[in-house]
Amino acid sequence: MTLFRSLHFACLATVRQPARTCLGVLGVAAVGALLFDMLLLSRGLVLSFRDLLDRSGFDVRVLATEAPPFTGPRIGDAEAVAAQITQLPEIEAVLQLRVREAQAMLAVDGPRQVEGGRTVGSTDRPRSVEFIGADPRVRSLWTIVAGEDIPEQPAAVPTLVVNQNLARRLGVEPGDALFLRGRCGGAADAMRAVRFQVIGIADFPFDSVTAGTVAGTLDDADRLCGEAPDDRAEMLLVRSRPGAGALAAAAAIRVVRPDLYVATNADLVERFSRVEFSYFRQISAVLATVTLFFGFLLIAVLLTVSVNQRLGEIAALRAVGLSRGRVIAGVLWESVLLVGAGGLLALPLGFGLSMWLDGILRTLPGVPADLRFFVFEPRALFVYAALLAAASIGAAAYPMRIVAVLPIAATLRREVVS
Questions:
Q1: CA-CA distance, 142 to 268, in Å (whole number)?
Q2: Which helix (H) or strand (E) holds 328?
Q3: Which of 91, 146, 202, 303 could form a disulfide with 161 if both were Cys (CB 3.0 to 4.6 A apart)?
Q4: For residue 348, what are the CA distances in angstroms to 8, 70, 178, 342?
Q5: How is the chain split into domains, by residue range?
Q6: Which secondary structure element, helix H or strand E, spans residue 318, and what is its range?
Q7: DSSP letter string over 357-416?
Q8: In whole angstroms, what is the distance from residue 340 CA to residue 385 CA?
């Protein structure tokens, strides 16, 4: 009963001063929205990166060294290594990847001509693209959104799939011709352009919003640079059997190929969280701490001013029999009401702000388009509620002390004299 009476006392105090109450609620909402976004940012990249890795359909990566993917040496004798790994009982499939830089154009140097309903020719500006060569006999890394995937059997004309960004910029559709010239060291300009037929448009999981990506066979990757068949791969993507799991598959690969670097998706997430994503985690922790501190100051100042304005009223209530505990609990409830109302209002504001900020950050160069900086998880909501609860209690500590030690007689005398 005393608890509800204290709550009623706090509600009356907040209603009697609407301007101060609205100011406090809006202030807490602004602070809470930023605090909530920082909690989403602290683990958002890690959760989103983990989701991207899992969506690829492969849970183990095999590289030549511990260097980040596509930056270190290639895996030698990749065909034999892939066959050896595939024979392990824990492994379901192995996909070889070769990556080349190239220039894409609608026509090779020469007279202007009409192709695919467009007038093209030597004036067409080449587009820089990344060519991914993969084994078409294994489930691909990408997802086809139009057309079809690369056939398992070689065609008379080399085929490839392009990402949606490149298809939109060049205006190509399945069935159109596309010419690629490999950029292979200092002899890039001397490479002969190779004619490909676009048979599909695909969604590549790690593409940025501006990336131009195409994919073909392993032999096509060598053909771009005029190389003889090169049995080396940048990476092997491994899919474990459902009954085995990634850890068992990685352990089995390490036994048969201790010379290679083997990492599960969880290993990569942990590594990126510790190194590449540590900046965002640190900045979110700093901003969350600063934001929470200012929220604490805001509520503490508002409650202190409110209590000081009502000292005479509080002393009178104490004089007619209102207990000290009830008055103290009323100040605490007042803080909880302000923080609770502002905290609830902050949630939709925080979601809207996170979407706006996420759209800005995803335009950064090299950031995958499907990567999210702000990702919601129930854990963030619980931490958010706990931090606001601690702030409301801490902010009410000093005003509660004021009413706890308030001299009733002296306060009433001062009020009468003034």
A1: 20
A2: helix 324-361
A3: 202
A4: 28, 40, 47, 11
A5: 2-53+277-417, 65-259
A6: helix 311-319
A7: HHHHHTTSTT-BTT--SS---HHHHHHHHHHHHHHHHHHTHHHHHHHHS--HHHHHHHHH
A8: 9
Name the token pair of 229: 């068949």
CA distance 326 to 332: 10
CB atoms within 10 A of CB 188: 14
Token pair, residue 79, equals 């065909």
Task: Report the SS3 class of residue 128.
Answer: strand
CA dihedral defined by 101, 105, 108, 112, rounded to 10 degrees? -170
**What average pLDDT does this structure show over 213-233?**
77
d(Cα 142, Cα 205) in Å, to the nearest integer?
7
* 290-291-293 Cα angle (round to 5): 65
Any idea what the Cα angle at residue 233 is, between residues 230 and 235, rounded to 5°?
175
**Contact criterion met (CB below 8 Å) for 337 and 14:** yes
Q: Tokens at residue 396, please?
A: 């009410």
Could you tell me the two tokens for 363?
């335009």
* Contact indicator for 11, 330 with CB cutoff of 8 Å: no
Sign of CA dihedral 62, 66, 67, 72: negative
Q: Which of 217, 215, 218, 216 is nearest to 203 (CA)?
A: 215
Total Cβ atoms within 10 A of residue 215:
26
Instruction: Tell me the pairing of strands 159-163 and 194-203.
Output: parallel
What are the backbone dihedrals phi and psi of residue 356, each rounded to the nearest 5 degrees, phi first?
Answer: -65, -45
Alpha helix ranges (H) inside 127-194:
164-170
**3-state SS assignment for residue 4:** helix
Tell me the pLDDT band of 50, cut-offs 50, 70 and 90. Answer: confident
**Calpha distance 283→349 (Å, rounded):** 21
Beta-carbon contacts of 357 under 8 Å, excluding residues fewer than 6 positions away, are 37, 373, 374
Terminal C-alpha separation, the chain = 36
CA distance 46 to 209: 19
Using alpha carbons only, how large is the chain's radius of gyration in Å? 32
* pLDDT band (50, 70, 90) for residue 348: very high
The burial class, CB within 10 Å (0-12 / 13-18 / 19+), for 310 is middle
C-alpha–C-alpha distance, residues 204 and 161, integer Å: 10
Local confidence band at 27 (pLDDT 50, 70, 90 cut-offs)? confident
Whether the Cβ atoms of residue 40 and residue 374 lie closer than 8 Å to each other: yes
- Mean pLDDT for 263-290 is 81
Name the token pair of 126.
């080449």
